[in-house]
């Protein structure tokens, strides 16, 4: 509507500006073809580069009463399942009987033919027994020892590597010791990791140290890395789990878990009750 009004206004302005006939009915009032009609200055002419003076034109409103409407949609909403007058027919667009006329079909059903997921060939496989280890090089451990973050005289466990930032926070299945920067190890160190490469083990043993491969399950890693979580929940620390048969040849021993630092309240109460019963 607005574009229609603007087009009519521009057409009126052009016609009134180029028309040579007088716009007023009075014979004495005549205008130049480039003179602005209804202008206060009879000597003013039309300048296309200057701003147009709309005060000289006849007042023309862009809105009118017959264009006013309520701000509501003209199309009524579809009322499904309400008979023929709903706009979707008697069956509400579901047709007659059949599987899809009621509850519907299962995902991936293609009318009885072989579905696409069965027509496509399979490539490769995913090993459900695969393990993911976080790698850490000997050079990084040597740099942390020189920086004073790791004490080389103590046993370096996976918790020590995590607390010092040698590995990431997420330890899925353990830590693998790599031989990167093995020439920087010039003093004996003792480590406990999940896996170790041949080069890394040879470098540590050549410097007079040792590397032991230990096994932890998921719960064991949680007890090793965050023992305070069990104390906060009032739970006992789990026992170290034995490795499964397929990993017995790949580990040297079972992992060691820390002892609880604070007594658990309900265990203290039970021990006190037992002492009272013995005394009585």
TrEMBL record:
Residues 71-123, 236-262 are annotated as: Disordered. Keywords: Ribonucleoprotein, Ribosomal protein. GO terms for cellular component: mitochondrial large ribosomal subunit. Residues 135-211 form the Large ribosomal subunit protein uL15/eL18 domain. It comes from the Eukaryota. PANTHER family: 50S RIBOSOMAL PROTEIN L15, LARGE RIBOSOMAL SUBUNIT PROTEIN UL15M. This is Large ribosomal subunit protein uL15/eL18 domain-containing protein. The lineage of its organism: Eukaryota, Viridiplantae, Streptophyta, Embryophyta, Tracheophyta.
